Amino acid sequence: MLDPAIRQLATTGQNFATICFHLPNGQIGSHVMWVDADDEHVLINTEVHRAKYRSIEDDKSVTVTIWNKDNPYQYAEVRGAVVDEVRGPEARANIDALSMRYTGHEYSNPIQSERVILKIAPDRQRSMGL
After folding, report:
1. Which domain holds residue 55?
2. What pLDDT is attached to residue 129?
3. What's the Cα-to-Cα distance from 18 to each of 27, 91, 102, 114, rounded to whole Å?
């Protein structure tokens, strides 16, 4: 189960997250992302052609840090693994909802491949100031 305070941070406001993942050459990649959550998982929406997705296909271990945009000293870290993914209309609806939350309008960037929601199950979770 995802800590309720972390879920709240991930599902409200314009709080950004950084997802860190292993690249094929052994280095660590990180991207600042919009973030969402359900009761069990941190949710990250991306496209299947992107390097982060291809890297995560090879190594499902990730770390996600989410910070409060109004006070970056309030943050959460979730270490875990991508345990599931959702594609199709649900992934498209999610990116539109995230875009509304973060920008005030539906997602307008061209979709080059296919949207996918990565479901990250926590192995370890901690927070500061939440």
Report:
1. 4-128
2. 95
3. 16, 19, 15, 21
